[in-house]
Design goal:
Chain lengths: ~300, ~300
C-alpha cells in the first residue's frame, strides 16, 4: 500500500498529524493541502507538512488517490460538495469527525456517485492544544481509530482504510455509525456536558470562586475535560444531539435515584447505589488502543 | 509543643498515618491505640504505629494529652460518649471527618463539659486503599487541613491544633463548619455523586459494558472518583445531605440550560455555556496545599 497523492482538506492538528505520520511511514509521495485560511496552508507548507498549498478543494483533490477531510463538523457538507466533481472514483476518502451519522448524512446529500469513496473514520486522539503548529506524526500511535463503513464501500476501500490507520500505529475497530454515536454519547459526549454543567453550577453561585479555591485532586481529574474547546464541543453536542439527550435521560434517572435515597434517608439503598458504581469503575480499565499520554478531546 | 501521650481512637489509614507522622516528628512520647477490631489494634502494635493496644476507648484515653478520633462518621457519637468521662480537661481532642456540622452536633450531644476540648479537623488527604497496612507518616505532607474551631475552644487549643498539623507538613486553613460543609459539598461531594450516577446510568443500559469498552482517557479521569469506598461515601453524603441537595439543585439548573439549548438547537447559546465552563476550568489550578500525588478520597 502506497499512495501517490494525498490531499489534505483542513490543515490543523488532526490533518497535519495524519500527513506527517503517512510521510514518516513512507506511504505517500506527494501531499497537497487546502485550508480555508491562507495563512494556515502557507504555514503547513513551511513546516513541511504538505508539499503544495492549494487555493481550492478542487485543486487539492485533483489526481489524489487518498483524501483526508479534517475540517470542523460544520464544514463537512460544503467540503463534500466542493470535491465531488473532481474526486477520482478510485480514491479513498476519509474524514476524522467525532460524530458519524451527521457526517454520513452530509455525504449522502453532497457526494452523489462518489459516496462509495467515503470510509468514515474517527481516530480517538487529540491534544489540549489545536493547530498545525502542534501536529506530530505520532499523534495516532497506540490510539484507537473507529471506522464506520458504508454499504456502498468496496471491500478494497475498507481494507485500505484499515491498513492506513494500522500503518501509522492506530488500533482499528469497526462499528455501525449508529453504534458509534450512541457509544460516544455515553462515554464521552455526556461526560463532557456533565462537567461543563458542574463548572457552570459552581460559577453561578456567589461563593463559587471561594469553593473552587478549596477544590482538590478529585475535582481536578473530574473536571479536566471541562476545559475543552467550546466550538469543537458545540459542534459535537449539536451533531449528536439525539443520542446525547438519550444519555442525559439515563443519567437523570440515575441521579433521581440518588436524590430520592438521600431525601428519604435510606442509607442502605444509598450505599448499594454507590457500591454498584464503585464496583463497575474499579473493575474498568482503559483498553489497549484507547490509551494516550496526552489529554484527548474525545 | 510535645505530647506525653497520644490516644488513637480508630487505627486505620488516617489515624495510623497521624501517629506515624507525630512519632517521626518527635512530637510524642507514648501512643495508645483502640480499634473496634482487636485484629486491627494488634496489627497496629506489630507495625509499631502504637505502643500499647487498649481494650476500650476509656483505657486508651486515660492520661492522654492528645486524642485523635479517626473513626467512621457513623461511630463519632458513641466514641464521644465513651471518652467523655475519662478525657482530661486539658487534653486536645481532634477528629478527621470529611464533614463537620454533623461531627459537631454529635459532640454537642455526647461530649458534655468536654466540648471545649474538641477542635474539629478535616485533613484533605487519603488513598485509594484503606487500612493500617497502608498508613504512612508522610500522608499529610503538603496537604491542606481545615480546622473548624468551636466558640468553646480556648485560643491555646486552637493554636496547638494548628501547630500539630503544621508540624507534620500540612497547610492549615480555618473555616466555619457551615462554610466547610457547603464548600466540600460543591467541590467534592456532589462531583462524587455525579460520577456514581454517571457510571450507574451506563450500567443500567443493555449496551453499558460495550460502551465502557470504548471509553478513553477523558472518561478515565472523569470517573476515577467513582471507584471510591461505598460505606465512606454513604456516610459523607448522608451526613452532608442538606448541602449536597443544595448543590444538586444548582447542578440541575445548569444541566437544564444545556438541555434546553440542545433541544432548541440554539448553537450560539450552547457555545456560550461551554465557553464559560471552559474559561473557568482553564484558569483554575490546584492550590498549594490541596495537591497530592496519590488519589484523595476527598
Amino acid at each position: 500500500m502506497k499512495f501517490e497523492r494525498l490531499a489534505l482538506i483542513g490543515c490543523g492538528l488532526m490533518g497535519g498529524s495524519f500527513a506527517l505520520a503517512l510521510r514518516q511511514a513512507g506511504l505517500v509521495q506527494h501531499i497537497t493541502g487546502f485550508s480555508a485560511s491562507e495563512k494556515t496552508r502557507q504555514r503547513a507548507l513551511e513546516l513541511g507538512v504538505i508539499d503544495q498549498a492549494c487555493n481550492s478543494v478542487t485543486e487539492a483533490v485533483q489526481g489524489a488517490d487518498l483524501v483526508l477531510l479534517a475540517v470542523p463538523v460544520g464544514a463537512m457538507h460544503s467540503s463534500f460538495a466542493a470535491l465531488r466533481d473532481t474526486l477520482s472514483p478510485k480514491a479513498l476518502l476519509m474524514d476524522v469527525g467525532s460524530t458519524k451519522c451527521d457526517v454520513i448524512a452530509a455525504a449522502q446529500a453532497a457526494l452523489g456517485e462518489r459516496l462509495n469513496c467515503l470510509v468514515p473514520a474517527h481516530p480517538i486522539a487529540g491534544k489540549e492544544v489545536a493547530g498545525i503548529e502542534h501536529a506530530e506524526g505520532t499523534l495516532y500511535q497506540d490510539r484507537r481509530t473507529i471506522l464506520t463503513p458504508l454499504p456502498q464501500n468496496s471491500i478494497r476501500h475498507i481494507q485500505t482504510a484499515s491498513e492506513v490507520w494500522t500503518a501509522i500505529g492506530s488500533h482499528v475497530s469497526h462499528m455501525t455509525p449508529e453504534a458509534h454515536d450512541a457509544t460516544f454519547a455515553a462515554v464521552s459526549h455526556l461526560p463532557h456536558l456533565l462537567t461543563f454543567a458542574a463548572v457552570n453550577a459552581l460559577t453561578a453561585q456567589p461563593q463559587g470562586a471561594a469553593f473552587l479555591e478549596m477544590a482538590g485532586p478529585g475535582f481536578r481529574d473530574f473536571s479536566r475535560i471541562a476545559a475543552s474547546d467550546a466550538s469543537v464541543w458545540r459542534d459535537i453536542l449539536s451533531a449528536n444531539r439525539s443520542e446525547v439527550l438519550t444519555q442525559m435521560a439515563h443519567f437523570r434517572a440515575a441521579l433521581d435515584q440518588f436524590e430520592n435515597t438521600l431525601k428519604q434517608g435510606d442509607t442502605a439503598a444509598l450505599q448499594q447505589l454507590i457500591q454498584q458504581a464503585s464496583d463497575v469503575r474499579s473493575a474498568w480499565t482503559l483498553q489497549a488502543g484507547n490509551a494516550c499520554n496526552k489529554a484527548s478531546e474525545d
